[in-house]
Predict the 3D structure of the following.
Amino acid sequence: MFAVAQLTSAPLWGRFSDRYGRRPALMIGLGSSAIAYVLFAYANSLELLFLLRIVQGAGGGTVGVIQAYVADATKPEDRSKALGWLSAATNAGVALGPVLGSTAAHFSDRGPGLAAAALASVNMFFAWTYLRESHDTNAVRAAGKVITKSSVAVRRVVSHWREPASRLIWIYAITIGAFQGMNTILALFLGSKFGVDKTTIGWFFTYVGVISIFARALVLGRMVDWLGEPQLSRVGMVLLAVGLGTMPLMPSIPWLAVSVALIPLGTAFTFPCVTGLLSRMVPQHERGLYMGVQQTFGGAARSIAPIYAGWSFDHLGHGVPYFTAAGVVLATISLGIGMEKHVPAKGVG
């Protein structure tokens, strides 16, 4: 329920931020999440828990708005680097969240919900105090520009899939689906092929997370300066595909660690570059909308890919989901070919 609410609300939040500003969208999203988490901590029925998870998902659908804010506030040539820092911080939060939740649970059953509410409230305070509006909505209205409806934008990505912006959204969705499918069955794969225990599996997830944060925070910027976003995104997809495709072939844990390392490197080079390019290729007055649409397609892929990965792992063989994901990612590289000619001139977008 959380994921469905998040992916369906993302374009709506994006369009809202295009029309009324990034800051109001973020403030409302954080506020609704904080209230929902407090109520979640004290909920006394399953129905209320489901309802509150929907509210939390909708409140958390502002990822595209945050990306649009970063795009507004940075120069076009620096955008992918900034988005890399954003995703590094997000990954760090994802890694720390379960630790904080389990720690809070030691004090009370309501601890995780109240801790999440406190964090959302702190974020809201800092946003209210320090976050300045990045999107000039008055200029958009004065120019008489019309913002596309969310449903129309979603349909356009499907019906006009050859357009550069649509291709970027499909690249993002397919590659993040491949990554999420791998991530979902990684524990099963490690247990069945190498017989590792829970401790080793935990270290593997930590290993992937550390490489991802390091690559996005310290390596991505230099690689963008060297290769540019279009070429680097393709390099990232190659690394991701090679990492996925070689995992089932590795004979031992040390060799597997080499193969697995390519996966977070690939995603670190692909996702920020694709998002940075998308922010430059869509109209500035619809940037939030299309950042949200990208999150919708990515969320759908993150929901569907694990289903196939789990089914194929059980019924077709332990290596099949990885080989399939690698093949799909390699095929997706074709969508990025020739993207250079669609990139606006330096300083534009």
User: Anything to note?
Assistant: The radius of gyration is 20 Å. Residues 156-334 form a domain with the Growth Hormone; Chain: A; fold (CATH 1.20.1250.20). The chain has two domains: 2-78+89-130, 156-334.
